[in-house]
Amino acid sequence: MRYDLADVFTDTPLGGNQLAVFTELTAVDATAMQAIALEMNLSETVFLRPAEAGGDVRAKLYSTVCEVDFAGHPLLGTAAVLAQHLVAEETTLRVETNVGIVPVTTRRLAEDRYTAWMRQPHPKISPVPDEQAAQLLAVLDLEQSLLPVTLYDAGIPHLYLMTDSPEAVRAIIPDFPALGRAAGESRARINVFALTGPTTAVTRMFSPYDRVPEDPACGSAAGPLAAHLVRHRLLASGVQLTLSQGEAVNRPSTLYAQAVADQDDIQSIDVGGGVCLIGSGRLRLPGPGGGAARPADRTVTA
Hints:
The protein is of the alpha+beta class and 302 residues long. Helices cover 20% and strands 39% of the residues. The chain contains six helices and 17 strands.
């Protein structure tokens, strides 16, 4: 099984969020895909399949512990991996996910460097009960959130808490079991952020349920974060937000997000960043009869 490796939300190899994309249509089931994702031990691993619903390709997304319906850096990285086989300098691919088709536009900067932007699904927005918000703040050792603690869900649920300084964000020492209990039945990822300027912020995302408990760069969280700020009038609608993430896990990352919204409605959310293609390889697995895995019928190249 061939795979490509990419670093997403960075213009420098060995930064950003790591990704493996399996491009060959090798016959493996959900159990095998989950085991392979654990073997790769990255935030997410992507397995490509033929399109089924009018898109260009279907992406199956797996964390180290479960299939996920939607994620940000895997779709941007997948589009760049596929774009390397295309002639055009700029291309848009319609990637099928469990929450629908996500268009991703890539632009080639060099042989192995790309920028990629995606139009994200609109998230469902839910208030967080005061008791749960207080529990989250206590676990994070924060006195308050400057904006209401809110749950956004576009395929992966995310909770957002806003501190008054980037130093407070950087100082957090996460207690992951306690964070998992505080997130409750939603099993949401917990995002803590602070503004560093009118259109810039630093953020950290904690995922108590995965073997990668702090994400270096979370695209599925960046879009709702921009919408959250626009809804509360801390960011103008349609203005690009620049997010710094990953410093705490030695994977410096830069994410860009833009939301067109008002207090009550979200019209669009776009998230983008750099992608570095850093390598490729093959994984050898036993087949059903104990021999080598069946050769792939073909490789997905969009």
